[in-house]
Amino acid sequence: MHFHDNDGHVGCYVPGGTGEGSPRISNAAPLPVVKVVEYDPSWPSKFQEISQKLEHYLSISGVEYTSIEHVGSTAVPGLAAKPNIDIIIEVPNAEQAAKAKEALIHEPSPEEHYKCWGDGGIKGRISMKLHNRNELPDQSVYIINQEDPEGRLVVQCHRALRDTLRLPQHEALRAEYGRLKVHLATSSIDGVDYGQKKNPLIRRILQTAGWADEEIDKKEALDYRIPGDDDLPY
């Protein structure tokens, strides 16, 4: 199912899709296509494959890191998601964060190296994307400095969402979140719009996880992206 708005943007939901072969239209603005697919059981193993490469790049560069985690919807069994593996690398301080960024830029092969997009429009992280932005991304890597309060908030939010939606007692909430994602894939102008329109339900999920509204407000304030602005990848 595909949606074309008046500006030529495309959103799609692909039942059982793998995220490959994303449709494009020639007169579309250069914004990422929002694609949501049914849960793919291969996502955890794909994360492990990427994680092993990241461990290698960090190790040979002498980077100190505390964890490499699979976060986002692809880390929740049964949940529809964009076919993009979200990964967090936690490091102990700003010096190691800078070293980790350089490692991902310089250590991989020319075909697999990463490009830094600053914080990617969300404070508290270093956003790393595969260098070829013209291809639909299959992974996003975020470097987090544990000494940065905003970075800690980013990590806490990712973990709270993932861990809450994984619990059997929250199956109904997980299903509701999946339905919302499918709907937004066909009604959002780009990935930023898609992400920000999830905020009301994400608030409920975080409240279920025990977060206070004040904490959630701080989390939402980290995101300064503007829908329709293609200068930052989502």
TrEMBL record:
It holds the Pfam family GrpB. It comes from the Eukaryota. Gene3D superfamilies: Beta Polymerase, domain 2 (3.30.460.10). This is GrpB domain-containing protein. It comes from Exophiala spinifera. The lineage of its organism: Eukaryota, Fungi, Dikarya, Ascomycota, Pezizomycotina.
